[in-house]
Amino acid sequence: MTFPDHDPTLPFGPSAIRAAATVIAAGGIVAVPTETVYGLAADATDAAAVARIYAAKGRPSFNPLIVHVADLAAAQALADFDAEALALAEAFWPGPLTLVRPVRAGSGIASLVTAGLDTVAIRVPRHRAMQALLAESGRPLAAPSANASGGISPTRAAHVRASLGPDVPILDDGATEAGLESTIVAGRTILRPGPVTAAMLAGVLGTVEQGPDAPAIVTAPGQLASHYAPRKALRLNATAADADEWLIGFGAVAGHDTLSASGDPVEAAARLFDALHRADASDHARLAVAPIPADGIGEAINDRLRRAATR
């Protein structure tokens, strides 16, 4: 099986995985789901393939990519792990945690992946589609979110197609589970909050700290001040919609749509980008979103919303 020309999308299955691995082996790119969002994957050791990711997304080359590998042993072949990093990997891999570690000499990772830094952002995903593609391709896969750079992250195949156009092959395995990109940690510093919360990390390390929102030097994905952004202006902490606004509710704030009518932050995280896509496609001129409590995974939701509202 190969990806059809008229709509290069295949449903998850063994033949689709083989087709996707063939694209990877030829230096191409494939959109594939993880437990967080859909990623745009290419062989992380092939500089030309990685360049195709940047070109498809319109992504600035100073913004590094996350490398996905099958297991901890594969990660250790590419990067150096100290005792704390090993403890985090053993606690949260496979899963939505990315570790920024010193890249090993001779790892073969293309310098475009690391944006020329001496560190690499690496994780072991849990999703069956990405794990199957890693196994079939036998390559470490660089895979940022499968959308135009700075736009709303994709949690469904339809989001990928709408953002990246008709030509990108997509491995479709339905909606993603977590709906937010992975937590990124360097040492004890959280560079990007995500599904693995600060409290969960502190349970392993004892103490953690939050890195700067918009550092002068970008060392990991998701650190740009403006990111995850809809086309329309977005107002935060809204309890009612203005006349020209599409309101995304939460809890007691109903809105035109809701992240969680019951006020469940985990449900809200899973629905966030899907709701932003629907709102951006509405006939309203502006968007608004209800207040989200900042504890637990709410910290990651609010991080994405702050960057989405920055213009």
In words, what does this structure look like?
This protein is an alpha/beta fold and 311 residues long. Helices cover 32% and strands 18% of the residues. The strands form three sheets. The chain has a nine-stranded mixed β-sheet, with helices on both faces. A four-stranded parallel β-sheet has the order 12-15-13-14, covered by helices on one side. A hairpin with a 2-residue loop joins strand 9 (183-186) and strand 10. Helix 1 crosses helix 6 (128-137). The radius of gyration is 19 Å and the shape is globular. It starts with 8 loop residues before the first strand and ends with a helix.
Largest sheet descriptor: 9 strands, mixed
How many distinct helices? 10
Strand order of the largest sheet: 2-3-7-4-6-5-9-10-11
Q: Kindly report how far apart the N and C termini lie.
A: 43 Å
- Beta fraction of the residues? 15-25%
Write down the overall geometry. Answer: globular
Order of helices and strands: EHEEHEHHEHEHEHEEEHEEEEHEH
Q: For the CA atoms, what is the radius of gyration?
A: 19 Å
Mean pLDDT: 92
The helix/strand class is alpha/beta
The stretches of 5 or more residues where confidence is low (pLDDT under 50) are none
Helix content: 25-40%
Number of strands: 15
Task: Detail the topology: elements first, then pairings.
Layout: E1 9-11, H1 14-25, E2 30-33, E3 38-43, H2 47-57, E4 66-68, H3 72-78, H4 83-92, E5 97-102, H5 111-114, E6 119-123, H6 128-137, E7 141-142, H7 157-164, E8 170-172, E9 183-186, E10 189-192, H8 198-205, E11 209-210, E12 234-235, E13 245-249, E14 257-258, H9 265-280, E15 286-289, H10 298-309
Parallel strand pairs: 1-8, 4-6, 5-9, 10-11, 12-15, 13-14, 13-15
Antiparallel strand pairs: 2-3, 3-7, 4-7, 5-6, 9-10
Helix pairs in contact: 1-6
